[in-house]
Amino acid sequence: MADELKVHLIDHPLIQHKLTRMRMKDTSYKDFRELLEEIAMLMAYEITRDFPLKEVEIETPVAPCRAKVLADNEVGLVPILRAGLGMVGGMMNLIPTARIGHIGLYRDPKTLKPVEYYCKLPPEPEKRTFIVVDPMLATGGSSAAALTMLKEHGAKKLVLMCLVSAPEGIRVVNKEHPDVPIYTAAVDEKLNDHGYIVPGLGDAGDRIFGTI
Ligand code: PRP
Ligand code: URA
Fold first, then answer.
1. What is the pLDDT of residue 68?
2. For the stretch 58-87, what's the b/e string if a residue is b when 16 or more beta carbons lie within 10 angstroms of its beta carbon?
3. Atom number, ligand 2, closest to the C-alpha of residue 197
4. pLDDT, tens digit, 9 for 90 and up, residues 20-72
5. Which ligand 1 atom is at minimum distance from the Cα of 80?
6. Whose CA is closest to atom 4 on ligand 2?
7. Domain 2-209 has CATH 2.60.40.10
8. Active-site pick, 21, 23, 31, 206
9. Which of 25, 50, 121, 178 is the most buried (most CB within 10 A)?
């Protein structure tokens, strides 16, 4: 049955170019990490496009005036461990005042279900806009579980940012969290029998941390 994927595709040429280099199997760990940070920064620029502004009174060297600043400084970044960590540095370049939460989940290789092992979030989650980051949205189990954990801790405003997504994972998050917008740089073809995204880029955590 045909269904519509609800996803924001960020397909800026610079992002596509860098993502192609990340996909290549001979790209070094060093380059992979650097490219991920650069793409995360470019994606952060796009997803903060709708952040609300407020006017404040300031004085320039020439005259007083009203000017705009971000209305909401209460951003929380939440990488899903491990691979999400590779996106934090790039995003912090643009949102240096963000607080960082951590959610530890790994995918059981047999069942492909997420297993929770860590959760530490900034205070007053109900007041923040959380950006949950993970390079890979495959079955969607890990991202959906992370969003559920955040909601159980009181978070109300959530955004999911993934580098590469499979249609299967987008469908799961759309169904379980219809209130959460998904931003991604690529929607790939499918999952293989091991739950890997095809063509994807392999195991993101292993390629970031050199644990292959
Ligand atoms: C990877 C990836 C996601 C998850 C995606 O993590 O970083 O968190 O798999 O798969 P899913 O959408 O099917 O849940 P992994 O479990 O390999 O853990 P790691 O980051 O510690 O390597
Ligand atoms: N996790 C990864 O790191 N890569 C995939 O393709 C799927 C899950």
1. 95
2. eeeeeeeeeeeeeeeebbbbbbbbbbbbbb
3. 6
4. 999 999 999 999 999 999 999 999 999 999 888 999 999 999 999 999 998 87
5. 8
6. 203
7. no
8. 206
9. 121
